[in-house]
Amino acid sequence: PDVKDLSMDSGVQQMLEKARAEGIETAFDRAIKMSQCGFGATGVCCKHCLEGPCRIAPNGKGAQAGVCGAGVDTIVARNFLGNVTEGTASHAEHAREVAHAILEVVAGKAPYTIQGVEKLKAVASGLGLSSEGKDTNQLAKEVADKAMEDFQKQHGTLNWLELRAQDKSKETWEKLGLLPVNAHLEIAKSLARQVMGGDADPANLLLGAVTMGLVDGFAGLHMSTDLQDILFGTPTAVKSQYRLGVIKEDMVNLSVHGHIPLLSEKVVEWAGKLTDKAKEVGATGINVVGVCCSGNEVLMRRGVPVATNYASQELPIVTGALEAMVVDIQCIMPGIQTVASCYHTEIITTLAYSKIAGATHVEFTAERADEAAKEIVLRAIANFPKRDPRKVNIPNEVTEAYAGFSVEQIVEALRAVNPEEPLKPLVDAIAGGQILGAVAIVGCTNPRKKQDHDNVALVKELIKNNVLVVATGCSAHSLGKFGLLSPEGLQYCGEGLRNVLTAVGQANGLPGLPPALHMGSCVDNSRVADLLVALANYLGVAVKDLPAAGSCPETHHPKALSIGTYFIACGVDVHVGVNPQATGSPLVVNVLTADKENFPVTTDGLFGGKLIYEEDPVKAAGLLIERIKQKRKALGL
Ligand code: BF8
Ligand code: SF4
To answer: Which of 44, 45, 72, 75 to mutate to test the pocket of ligand 2 (most atoms within 8 A of CB)?
Structure first.
């Protein structure tokens, strides 16, 4: 296929042409070669024991039960729970790493300082800790200890759930017996119930997935965001740039890729300190660029430009001008090493439990942070003279974008309109119909879909219909590349939404707010949830009653299913534009996607939110708008 059908990003298209000319295979090529298995795609293949694999054919043809007697509903529900558990484990480990780092920091063992003192006090008070008479490190230790309890306690429920959940949601989960005790316990229990001969009741397995979703939401997303804000500061609005053109020919280019900002923050810091060394090898300086969620973290807090998002992560290497790509965990394609081996680019892995054969490994721990980050930057510098000038070709487009819209920043921006009741202008605009509702665009890009296309198309359709959009993850990067994170994008908005965003922007000295507000990385979907809870509490309603929804048009990762399950448990509809690999069971499909009037047990009935699976982005926007209108009507709007 033409490269224009693989990505909307012209720089990516240009690099795909270059890769083809140089005989280099990328994820887009592999996606074409690799056909998808029909059984796996519908979730009907079970590999939970050595009697199998067993798979149930659709349409009642062939064996309709595994050797053990498991039917299709059990198999699909169990596989869904497995996916959600995997995603949850990623986020919980992320949060735990940061909690552990804070404990090292306050013990004087790791070279970071607590920068988010305001956030620390707010989180401490939410956890029931008094700040009085305590210095920053003492208070941070107590907060990190509370975080660690969420991996250890044997009774009660997650401290972070008590901290961040709306009471009304908590009541629902409690009644259904779904409250998680501690993250590790629940993850282990979930693995144990998926084992051959374990939980075989499909409805019960799906409720298990909801508990996993709650672990993901509170001990993964919220805990990560809160602790990262405490350690590195809460993001405020920043202006930066997007696209492969942020790679600079005359500089040492170093990309940070992965998720946990412990690494990326230190690399940015050391890049700033070692400019002279870069000059010694003939470069004008060191240019750190972001990829994926590490990119989001340093974009939000430091204004670091973003080169590209998930599906095209191999292509910064193809510019021939990337000296090193340093990675930690999650969403890192092993393919980057194969591509890098054709250039001078050095792939540097950093975590003991996440290596790539052939890559350089520089072990990164909080304690060794300075040493490791310095070595990483020095390695990038040392690679600069090894560049082959004949292979260098950097696409020249860049797009300007604003990011850094934490809840604190959004409230601050609204305060310029109404200092006493900052949420009032937003609520009034929703009540008055200038804003129809709100949708969070989350998730990824996926090499099986034309990159950025559906993320952008869905958002354009929503804002045209006056739906306020917030964005996180790689989907936010899609929007950034196409001007939707900049006031320029206001031209695509319906009149009501445009007027509100312009007024709030102007009150803050900007031509307008962007049509999509970039709220951060994937763990920062917690910020979206916090905003919903704040709005619901202000209005005195439940989160499930708000005219709001979530959408991941181009997702690829099980983490998206975990995040989606969390939001559904909060009563928020979640759209996926990619097959969630659970369509082989009518029961599972009905529980997750049916309206409460049409099926006896649904997530819609239990929690007020459901899954919407629709591959066409414009149709999907229509379905989201329809549900938003239903919820408006129920609120009497
Ligand atoms: O956690 S958006 S491709 S990088 S999974 Fe991965 Fe998807 Fe990007 Fe971030 Ni989230
Ligand atoms: Fe087959 Fe049952 Fe074993 Fe799964 S657990 S592989 S369905 S026998």
So the answer is: 75
